[in-house]
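Hey,
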Amino acid sequence: MKKLLALLVLSVVMCATASMAFSQEAHAEKAGEADAHHEEESTFHVIARWGNFAVLFGGLIYLLRKPMGEFFRTRRNDIVAGLQRAQDAQASAKARMDEIEQRLANLSRDMATLKGEAAKESLVDRERILSEAKREVERVVEQSRQQIERVARTVEREIKETIADQVIDRASNTLRSEMTQDDQKRVVIRFIKKL
């Protein structure tokens, strides 16, 4: 799961970097800087970017193949097991129904009573099977939703941390370049007074 999350973050960062590079190139072309050297360089950059994309995409497929295969295999096994349980329950209900019908053929005097019981049992079994299947589906959907929410929160937190780090770096660079010694002294004195 951590590997999957790291790959997801890496792919988001790579896509963002590639889109910024493509937008800068488009902006440069719109500005009219399309001389022969730039065209050669632009063609090389386009080929290099597509190559980077192909390598990244291939790497993601290679790295995600096993976890995704295991995930889908596990899901398939869970679904197959659930269907098998439903089929077993249905076969059991059918066997019970057959037994009741056989008893009805032998006992004509209890026919009305046994038919009523069989109908009730099959309805109860059907309702039980349907409710179990519905609960199982709801549980799987809820687990998937929770897992997606956890991944989304983690990605959002990491993006916020990255943005915050960049903002702090830019602010500190701006303060270092624009703040004089007198300004720094005034800030320190103001800070000491507040303390």
